[in-house]
Design a protein that fits this description.
One of its GO terms (biological process) is DNA-templated transcription initiation. The chain is mostly helical. Among the domains are: about 90 residues, no CATH class; about 90 residues, Serine Threonine Protein Phosphatase 5, Tetratricopeptide repeat, CATH 1.25.40.10. It is about 70% helix and about 0% strand. It has 19 helices and no strands.
Length: about 400
Amino acid sequence: MSDVEEAITRAHHEEWARMVAALTRRFGDLDIAEEAVAEAFATAVERWPADGVPPNPGAWLTTTANRKAIDRIRRENKRDDKHKEAQMLHDNTPPEPLGAIDDDRLRLIFTCCHPALAMQTRVALTLRMVGGLTVPEIARAFLVQATTMEQRITRAKAKIKAACIPYRIPSADDLPARVSGVLAVLFLVFNEGYLATGPGTDPVRHDLTSEAIRLTRLIRALLPEDGEVAGLLALMLLTEARRAARVSANGELVALDEQDRGAWDAALIAEGHRLVRERLAAAAAGAAPGRYQILAAINAVHTSAPDIRDTDWSQVLALYDQLIRLDPSPIIALNRAVAVAELDGPEVALATVNRLAEALASYHAYHATRADLLRRLGRSQQSRAAYNRAIELAGNTGETAYLTRRRDQLQ
């Protein structure tokens, strides 16, 4: 990758969400904001190789995007009110106080996660507008076709515009009812950064994981007593703590059992464990834990073990049993099977995994898990076929390299 390409990629990671959010606040239109920002990056791709990377790429892109947005408004000729257009051009009006925390990206998330939209639509729209993910990346996260996802996002933006959904952080009274959709979004944004799905992409996208953590911290400041907010933050911190150990020097993904635990971030683990202990105390007092709190507790068990052999798998399985009652999804069942394999053996786990075949046929982790269980049972030919299918479906080079190595080690 050339220096210019690297600068554009870095700017996209660092500036996309901020620019879309700022333009949405200024112009009040998601379509205009997204298109203008996309056009600004397209202009950078054309001009920076010849002109050089500007001293402040973010400022250059923001200025260009603002001009693109104004040009589009003028072309559409839908703004007859000259006073309003002048206000847009000069942007001298101070922003209205919109919430306890003044953050454009947080407001954008609450706009995209408005209850007028279906839950999956909220998540997809926010992954696009805030996370800057491409439509194919989002489609892979939802296991649907890219054309289907494109239509879903387009309809969502049209609905926001038609319903005049406000661009603001909800009032204190409305926050609790609105926060679950936002947490679902942030969880998926973090997961996309933790293990990117795009072909040819880096296995880990720190820009997405750090932004998800930043926004979750803001929501925790808004709702300090909300157990699921605390649980999600703990889950993110305990997962992010392992980032430095998750990719080898040659770019291969490193599985949990092979990671150098000395490279884990002790400060993030300590903070995550503290949050989990707080939620365990609340559960002991009668507050039933939610999905994110249980997932955080599972990660706390893993990060408490100094060695993979010290993992308390019975505790992990008990937590998964609790989780599956709340969320009986096939992916949770697949993850639970990994714990079953450690306690009851790979054959018992394989029977569980095989029952998920129809639901997870296009999910690479299903085939990777099945390949590993077949390997442990000595069924090398079937394991190789499962690895081949997992490699075919894998989303990034790091994961492909790991799966290929595991396949090639088969006897």
